[in-house]
Backbone:
């Protein structure tokens, strides 16, 4: 039965009504001071009052299309009723959660259900985030193989805690946090480089995103399978980081499943598994790896997480997987994603600043490149000289300001916009984005006007910050 209503409840609605207008000041004073500064600078300092599905709404009722999904968390959109109901149910049950000395059923049920989508994997460790899932995989690979070195790919993103940062291929995140673990980067798709590192005999594993979030780059077809064969021949493991690509994002449940024969030893998942409600991380692995790590009763707690396997997260995960199946979400990601990419790719003939559209499912990268015409090339060159990535920012801002569509630049110093919308979007949302994007590109190709005025402002800021 639900708990009795407390005599003096916290009135969140009243608190938000009273102080919600202070949101940017509160962040500037007590949290990361650069976040509000950045949002003010690029005009992203909106005030969203509520959200539903693939949309945000401001106080005036204006509708904003979400093409970011909280960096991939909201695969089912915001506030899916089935997930919300499951979380509410589990709170109303007053379960004896996290006793530490029992085996509650919900983690076992979620592990069973999740492994059903990953044939060849046998066990799951539940943590609280993607970076925790990666940390778990790194630890398990090192212990199971008796080796210490992990190979990762240039430009990879695997998280920001110390272990995952050691396999992060972006120098901007690593700078100032050395020394890190002694791991080694190779170019994505370079089998020769992998083979050279494996010959040294100290490699525990290769960790790789089947599609990199930074720039939306995939390795060449067949590379993942060939890498797996090399690794196993050298008694090393394959770790697939599916924190962003997994749980349906690419039109398969896990992105590695698009390549026949690929069978990772460890898989990291998070983000979408939460249903957008309760943080969760999951590391799936082969039985022999778990049996090595948890080899005796003395090692029963050798790796654990204080809030891992909590009832709310497990209920949200179960509900998410149910919705994925009931509403054919993975199939929708594949079908709508194919439509989306084809509609965008067709624009490349019209817009010389549009260099490439790539991706899989509803993970799409739109890359801009040097134009042919002299008039556009002059402006492009000025932006590139100031800071690479400014043109993509010039596109992102009017998409929000004029068309109320939230997107992101795919990474620092990249002329790439990444689209990772909720997996529930339909042709309606595709039409809205393509129409808005076309208007923005029309403006950009005039070579003058508000967009280029904003570009000059960005150039001044970039130069001034050097």
Residues:
């Amino acid at each position: 039965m639900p708990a009795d209503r407390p005599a003096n409840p916290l009135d969140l609605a009243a608190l938000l009504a009273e102080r919600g207008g202070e949101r940017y000041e509160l962040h500037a004073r007590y949290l990361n001071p650069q976040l509000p500064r950045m949002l003010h600078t690029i005009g992203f300092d909106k005030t969203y009052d509520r959200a539903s599905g693939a949309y945000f709404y401001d106080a005036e009722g204006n509708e904003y299309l979400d093409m970011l999904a909280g960096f991939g968390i909201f695969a089912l959109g915001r506030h899916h009723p089935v997930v919300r109901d499951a979380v509410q149910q589990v709170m109303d049950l007053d379960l004896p959660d996290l006793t530490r000395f029992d085996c509650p059923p919900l983690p076992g049920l979620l592990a069973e259900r999740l492994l059903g989508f990953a044939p060849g994997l046998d066990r799951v460790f539940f943590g609280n985030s993607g970076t925790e899932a990666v940390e778990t995989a790194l630890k398990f690979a090192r212990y199971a193989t008796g080796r210490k070195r992990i190979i990762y790919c240039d430009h990879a993103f695997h998280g920001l805690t110390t272990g995952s940062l050691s396999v992060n291929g972006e120098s901007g995140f690593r700078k100032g946090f050395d020394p890190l673990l002694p791991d080694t980067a190779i170019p994505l798709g370079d089998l020769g480089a992998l083979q050279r590192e494996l010959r040294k005999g100290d490699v525990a594993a290769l960790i790789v995103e089947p599609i990199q979030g930074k720039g939306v780059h995939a390795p060449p077809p067949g590379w993942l399978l060939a890498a797996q064969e090399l690794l196993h021949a050298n008694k090393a493991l394959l770790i697939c980081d599916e924190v962003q690509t997994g749980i349906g994002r690419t039109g398969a449940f896990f992105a590695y499943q698009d390549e026949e024969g690929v069978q990772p030893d460890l898989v990291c998942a998070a983000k979408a598994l939460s249903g957008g409600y309760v943080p969760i991380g999951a590391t799936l692995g082969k039985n022999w790896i778990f049996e090595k790590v948890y080899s005796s009763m003395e090692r029963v707690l050798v790796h654990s997480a204080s809030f891992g396997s909590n009832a709310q997260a497990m209920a949200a995960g179960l509900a998410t997987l149910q919705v994925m199946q009931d509403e054919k979400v993975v199939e929708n990601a594949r079908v709508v994603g194919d439509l989306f990419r084809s509609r965008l790719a067709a624009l490349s003939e019209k817009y010389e600043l549009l260099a490439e559209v790539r991706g899989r499912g509803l993970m799409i990268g739109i890359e801009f490149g040097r134009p042919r015409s002299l008039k556009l090339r002059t402006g492009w060159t000025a932006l590139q000289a100031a800071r690479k990535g400014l043109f993509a920012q010039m596109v992102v801002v009017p998409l929000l300001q004029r068309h109320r569509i939230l997107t992101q630049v795919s990474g620092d110093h990249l002329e790439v916009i990444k689209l990772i919308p909720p997996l529930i979007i339909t042709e309606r949302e595709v039409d809205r984005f393509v129409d808005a994007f076309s208007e923005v590109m029309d403006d950009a190709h005039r070579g003058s006007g508000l967009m280029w005025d904003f570009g000059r402002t960005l150039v001044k800021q970039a130069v001034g910050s050097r």
